[in-house]
TrEMBL record:
CDD domains: TOPRIM_recR (cd01025). One of its GO terms (molecular function) is zinc ion binding. May play a role in DNA repair. It seems to be involved in an RecBC-independent recombinational process of DNA repair. It may act with RecF and RecO. It holds the Pfam family RecR_ZnF. InterPro entries: DNA_Rcmb_RecR, Rcmb_RecR, Rcmb_RecR_Znf, TOPRIM_dom, TOPRIM_RecR. It comes from the Bacteria. This is Recombination protein RecR. SMART domains: TOPRIM (SM00493). Residues 82-177 form the Toprim domain. A zinc finger (C4-type) spans 59-74. Belongs to the RecR family. Gene3D superfamilies: 3.40.1360.10, 6.10.250.240, RecR Domain 1 (1.10.8.420).
Length: 200
């Protein structure tokens, strides 16, 4: 029988190990780090968790995380209201914002179609997207979903759903990352890079 720590330390390890991306060993390292950390640092972490749970919500329009709804992006009058970029999760909004290339609005689906995890179209924020397209002011929807099986399935589903609405539906270009070697590229990535080639 495997030995476990007693009481509070084991409870903390168990709590950390339930977080995504943290395994049992990582959870144990974090727990013992906090045990040896100054009280102010441990209290700061507890306060930050409590604050995020009490203050952060989802934007009533786009689904992004915010402290006041609508979020700052949806409230910004300088944003192009004719273009909506559809992403899976709020963290994807920040990834696109860091490029400083996109000046439109966002729509967070809250995931992707994944039959293995029992996530279908009804589990995503697709009705809210359709509602946003209802007044005809949106001219383009950019599908910026993860380039994996679930993201591809969701992209295809949305493209078929939105196509008849008369709105331009585009997707992010995909290809080879800078600094990579052709020999390590998979066939799908290399094929998309070829079909999406540009003038040199």
């Amino acid at each position: 029988m495997a030995l476990a720590y007693d009481g509070a330390i084991q409870n903390l390890i168990d709590a950390f190990s339930r977080l995504p991306g943290i395994g049992p060993k990582g959870a144990q390292r974090i727990a013992f780090y906090l045990l040896g950390a100054p009280d102010a640092e441990a209290q700061g972490l507890a306060d930050a968790i409590s604050e995020v749970k009490s203050k952060v919500r989802f934007c009533e329009i786009c689904g992004n995380v915010c402290e006041t709804s609508p979020c700052p992006v949806c409230q910004d009058p300088r944003r192009d209201r004719g273009v909506i970029c559809v992403v899976e999760e709020p963290k994807d909004v920040m990834s696109i914002e860091r490029t400083r290339e996109f000046r439109g609005l966002y729509h967070v689906l809250g995931g992707a179609i994944n039959p293995m995890a029992n996530v279908g179209p009804a589990d995503l924020r697709i009705p809210q997207l359709l509602e946003r397209l209802g007044d005809g002011s949106v001219t383009e929807v950019i599908l910026a979903l993860d380039p994996n099986i679930e993201g591809e399935a969701t992209t295809r589903y949305l493209a078929q759903l939105l196509g008849p609405l008369g709105v331009k539906v585009t997707r992010l270009a995909s290809g080879l990352p800078v600094g990579s070697d052709l020999e390590y590229a998979d066939e799908i990535t290399l094929g998309r890079a070829l079909s999406g080639r540009q003038a040199a």
